Amino acid sequence: DYHDQLIKAVEDNEADALILDKPVARFYLAHGASDKLKPAGIISGSGGFVMMLSKKDEGLQKQVNDALDKLMKNGEYDKIYDKWFADENFSKEPDVKS
């Protein structure tokens, strides 16, 4: 519920701005927040989602890395990104680093 409270605070001029994860911001912009708010941009070097695995589970780490590598090479990663995260208000930045 705190996202609602933060957005309302900006809409009501109780706060000047707020920082949200891009998917959360996209959701709120698509569901009415764009009537009063607009994105100012992406914080340079900001991350998106982080996946954390146990250091002890090297097998799972390899499976996740292999799956991401496959998705990126066959173009599915871009399709998923474009469907769920892309927005003309935000620039597309690489989300995965080696």
Core attributes:
single chain; 98 residues; mainly alpha; 2 domains; 4 helices; 0% strand
If you had to describe this structure to a student in words, what would you say it looks like?
This protein has four helices and no strands. The chain has helices spanning 2-11, 22-30, 58-74, 76-84. The longest helix has 17 residues, at 58-74. Residues 94-98 have low confidence and may be disordered.
| Relative helix content | 40-55%
Strand content: under 5%
Summing up helix and strand content along with how strands pair, one would put the structural category as: mainly alpha
Number of domains: 2
Radius of gyration: 17 Å
What general form does the structure show?
A: elongated
Amino- and carboxy-terminal Cα gap: 35 Å
Q: What's the order of the H and E elements?
A: HHHH
Low-confidence stretches: 94-98
> Could you tell me the mean pLDDT?
76
Number of helices: 4
For the biggest sheet, the summary is: none
Q: In total, how many beta strands?
A: 0
